[in-house]
Amino acid sequence: MALQIFNTLTGVVEPFETLEPERVKMYVCGPTVYNTAHIGHAMSALVFDIIRRYLEYRGYSVQHVQNFTDVDDKIIQRANEEGRDPLALAEGYIAEWHRHVQDLNLLPATAYPRATTTMNEIIALIGTLIERGHAYAADGDVYFRVRTDADYGKLSHRSVDSMRSGARIAPDERKEDPLDFALWKGAKPDEPAWESPWGGGRPGWHIECSAMIFKELGQRIDIHGGGNDLIFPHHENEIAQSESATEQSFARYWVHNGMLQMRSSAGVIEKMSKSLGNFVTIDDFLAEHPADVLRLMVLGSPYRAPLVYDAGTLAENERKLERLMSALRPAAGTTASGPAVEGLEAALRQARDSFETAMDNDFNGPGATAALFEMVRAINTARDAGVGGPPFDAVQATFRNITGVLGLQLEAQAAGAEEVGPFIELLIKTRADLRKAKQFALADQVRNELAALGVILEDSPQGTTWRWK
RNA sequence: GGCGACGUAGCCAAGUGGUAAGGCAGAGGUCUGCAAAACCUCCAUCACGGGUUCGAAUCCCGUCGUCGCCUCCA
Known about the structure:
This protein has helices spanning about 40-55, 75-80, 85-105, 120-130, 160-165, 205-215, 230-245, 280-290, 290-300, 310-325, 340-360, 365-385, 390-405, 415-435, 440-450, and strands spanning about 5, 10-15, 25-30, 60-65, 135-140, 140-145, 180-185, 200-205, 220-225, 250-255, 260-265, 270, 305-310, 455-460, 465-469. By secondary structure, the chain is an alpha/beta fold. A four-stranded parallel sheet has the order 4-3-9-10, with helices on one face. Strands 5-6-7-8 form a four-stranded antiparallel sheet. The protein starts with a strand and ends with a strand. The structure holds one RNA strand.
C-alpha cells in the first residue's frame, strides 16, 4: 500500500504524490521567538520530525524548511518590558531552539530562514501584490485585499460572508474591508524598521512565510505543516497571498497537528499556552525525563488529535520506554538456528509490515508503536527460549532500525555511570556474597537502599545488572 | 452564533461494512530466597436514539458531550 496523508485543504485522506519524483519539499511553521518554548511547541516539531523521518525511510529526499519569526509585535513588546533590543532577544531564543533540536533528537531542518533575513524578498512580494491589485498601501501600512481572492476561506472551510458577519474582527478605518490583513506595518518611533517603498516598517506575520517558501523551495511545495491553531488566519492568508502572486496552486498537502492540552489539578482540560500559564517548558521536561518519553507520548496519540498531558500519560509513557528498552538486553543463550529462531524472524517481518502499513496510513503513530511492542515480545520470548548469536543480534539491529525511523534513541540513561558504576558494582558483589551466605535481610537492605537512590538491581541466572530508575 | 475535529474497556488508543490491535493499570501463573524484569493466561460489543444492510464500532439522520479555531499562538 502506498502512503496516504490527510489534507486539511480537502478534508480527506489522499494518496501522497510529489511534485518531483522521490523528492519532498516541506515547510513547517516554526515558533515566534519571543519566549522560552514549551512542550506543545516540541510536540509540533516532533510530529513533523517523525513525518520527515518516515518519508526518508520511504526513499524520499526531503527538503525541510522551518522558519523563525524573529520580528513581530510580541517580540517588540517583550523586549520593551525587559529593556532589551528586540533582535537580540529573538537571537537568544533562536539559539535556545537550536539546543532543543539537539536535546529532542530532531533532525535539523535543511534551512532555517528568518523574517529579518528575507526582507528583500518580502518587500518584492508585497510589491508584486500591489501591482496586481491584490494589495494597497494606506498610511504607511500595506493590506491584502481579501475580496480579490475568489476562493479565500478554502483552507479553513469558511466563507467570506460568514466571517464578515462575525463580530470579532476589529474595524480599522485604514482598511477597505475588515477582513483585509496587514502585509506591511509602518513602524512607530523606537520600533525596529526596514526601509521600503511604503516607508520604514516591518512585515506582517503571514507574508514572511510566503516569501521564505518562494526563496527556499520555489512557488509550489508538497507539504505545508504547522499546528492546527494556524489554519486560520495564518495559513489561510498565506494561501491567499501566495496564489494571488503566482497564480498557481501553492501547497499540495496541508498537514496540521492537534494541540497539546494540559489537565489542571481541577481536572479542566485546556490547550497548553503561554497566555493561560499552563505550560511545561522543554527544559523543565527534559530535566526530569528522557526525550524518548515525550516522543512516545506524541506517537501514542493520532497526530491530528488533541493530546492531553497529565501525570497519567507521563507515567504510562515512561513504562512504554522501559518496555521498549527491554528488547535491547543482550542474549543469554546461543541458539542460532531452529524453530525458535525462525519464529522470531517471521514475527519481526510481520511486525515490520504492520509498522509500515500503520505509518502509510497518515502516519498512524499508535498503530506503529503497537507493531514495535509486538517486536519487543517476540524478541524477549526468543531470548527466554535461549536464542542468541548472530540471528539475535540481527533482529535487535532491525528493531533499532525501526525505532530509529520514529526518532527514538532508546539509550540507557548513562548520567554519572562512569563515576558511580564501580561503587555500585562493589555493592552488587557484596550483596552477592551475602546472598550466598543466606544473609537475605542484609542483601535486601542493600537492594532497597540502592533503590531509594534510584538504582534498580535485577537478578538473573547470568548475574545481577543495574539501571537507573 | 459560525466553521472544524472527536466520543471504542479504569486510563491512552488501533480498527472505517463481516462477529474488537497494542500499551498502562488490575487479577492469576512461570521464574526468584524474596523482589524486580521478562514470559504465559484473564479483563470491552464500541456516547445515546433512530435508519440503511443478510450483516455496522465502521454508512445515513438526530440528540447529548468534549476540544480547537473565528484575536497573538505549534
